[in-house]
Amino acid sequence: MKEKIHKTMRDNPALRWGVLLLSSLVMFFNYYFYDALSPLKDLMQTNLGFSSSDYGAFMSAYSVPNVFLAMAVLGGIILDKLGIRITGTLFVFMMALGGVITAYGASDMYLAGGPGYALMNSFLTGYSPSLKMMYLGFFIFGLGAETSIVVLSKIVVKWFKGKELALALGLNLAIGRLGTALALFLSPYLIHPEWTNAIWFGVLLLWLGLLFYIIYIFLDLKIDKQVKEALPESEEDQFRWRDLLDLITNRTFIFITLLCVTFYSAVFPFVKYAPDLLMNKFGMERDIAGQISSILMFGTILLTPLFGWIADNKGKSATLMYLGSALLIISHLMFALTTITPLLPIFLLGVAFSLVPAAMWPAVTKIVGDNKLGTAYGFMFSVQNIGLWALPILVGVVLDASNPEFRIDLKDQQFKEIQHSGNFESTLNTKSSTFNNKDIKFKYVVYKDSLSGEIVYRSYYETKTGKDGNYSINLKNNEMVDFTNFDLLQIPEDARIFIDRVKSPTFGDNDTIRLLETSKFRLDENNQYIANLADSGKKPDKKNFDAIISIKDAEGRVIYSESQKLYVDKTGKTEIKFGFGELRSVNYDALNFKQEKYVAEIIEPLDYTNAMLMFSALGLLGILFAFLLKRDDKVSGYGLEQPNIQK
Ligand SMILES: C[C@H](NC(=O)[C@@H](N)CCCCN)C(=O)O
């Protein structure tokens, strides 16, 4: 008898790939927010008073629900009971809510005593209210995020089973990884004018993710109706406790799970510290450090499918995992013990981070079979989260222990003296010789007072250290100032304002067109000034334009300069609000620290040697488990060295 063929929405390629796009974008936003804060570690240290241990604890909050509530397993069970629509909405909403709470914990409104501040200030007083609020936020984000990955994968399986499933799952993960890459790349550019904008941008993406998920629900409702008519409900993917018992008594599965936890713990937590490591060890600017860190993720997007193809067609999965673990150690040791260009270890890490996942996740199907796959992945995610929870904390603690005095407090008389002379001399805090006889970057941060932690001025210096780590800084010769309170400036009566139109993002002098030069300007109480560009006879051709605004003294010396987007109205008027653009330069001599309560810090670079040695040790454990897995495969006969695709 000929079977009746039921066509469903799954058979429509446009709809199927459209669903993949929706679910992958939610995955992308999830991965984006997970790493959006990684390039901002030092800003959390100076703006919120975080230590490295605080930062590590905050980052590990993501994994707390997944370790202690086993959310990846529990989420799978909830998913089986409540279905994709309710579970997905609930957990994607948690991600978005967690994002808001995290960003709120760093906001000025919260720091000024906004809702929840008093409560967070009333317990565990050794930790700052910001840390506690942000911890709560990242905890709720993590609660939603890991289960969302399970739900999103289930959606892909639902629409692609029997079709292009492996490709779809691979693309889903690749787009997720693109989220991490873009977060590392973009966050450094989003810190102007307010550094927390970089966090709020991630929050915006999470809410967009919720919107996309809600759009998907309509498609899910429709497909469920069609599939119910076409096929009886399948029980095979459901969670069963018996399966879990089978898994944890399977030696090969235990080895692959241990490899998963050690390997991923040496990668994801490393990414959380990578931009900060590059800024400290190699003196890179934040944007370059973000770009180099992102190469790791961009690389995996290209290489994972390649290694996946090798595992599928040529086999050798166990060997690939072994090789990946070896590369991981080499890369981390390079970071720990050499000053070789970071591009090389980052590249090697990218290869390692492509080799192991490409070989590992498909290998699990051989060990546990298709019907236990959901439970197996859920279990592995939960165990993996133990590492993602512990490592950021451990690295933070090791960093603090290896850099006890890297922030040098300057108070009262000492601040006044240094402010007056402009000179600071000291010897590096670190006992290792990593930074001796090298060009090193330092930060100088002035706070309004010792209590509020409000920054009024921050500048960066590069200077050569001596053979014993001694150094001297001339505060007037800064490399860059990235923050100043505009009110600190003493602007002479005869100062003039200049507006130059910027054509090139590199701000080259030759690329600017002078638009306005006036000595008759008066700032209102909000540092706002209205210029009439039409008067100059050089009205810009566009309404919105990038400009450099400078204030110069009568001799033409720049007192203050920033770049910002200006808008010119029909009559040629433009409003300039100082202090809201990207700071370009501030003349040190024009600074006037009027009140008495200022405190300042000279911040030395952090020595990452011990932290990186710890990551290398983890890699060593990884290689041990990869070896045991490879050896065990010969006995258990799962065929991990055989091609995944049987010809
Ligand atoms: C597939 C794997 N993802 C995971 O292991 C997740 N449990 C952790 C994701 C953390 C970022 N949201 C991977 O990305 O290789």
UniProtKB/TrEMBL annotation:
Source species: Salinivirga cyanobacteriivorans
Bilayer topology: Multi-pass membrane protein
Residue spans crossing the bilayer: 14-34, 57-79, 91-113, 133-153, 165-186, 198-219, 252-271, 291-311, 318-337, 343-364, 376-399, 611-629
Reaction catalysis annotation: L-alpha-aminoacyl-L-lysine(out) = L-alpha-aminoacyl-L-lysine(in); L-arginyl-glycine(out) = L-arginyl-glycine(in); L-arginyl-L-alpha-amino acid(out) = L-arginyl-L-alpha-amino acid(in); L-lysyl-glycine(out) = L-lysyl-glycine(in)
The protein's name in its UniProt record: Lysosomal dipeptide transporter MFSD1
Keywords: Lysosome, Membrane, Transmembrane, Transmembrane helix, Transport
Pfam families, per the entry: MFS_1
Record keyword DNA-binding present: no
InterPro entries, alphabetized: MFS (IPR011701), MFS_dom (IPR020846), MFS_trans_sf (IPR036259), MFSD1 (IPR052187)
Highest taxon, organism lineage: Bacteria
Gene Ontology cellular component terms for the protein in this record: lysosomal membrane
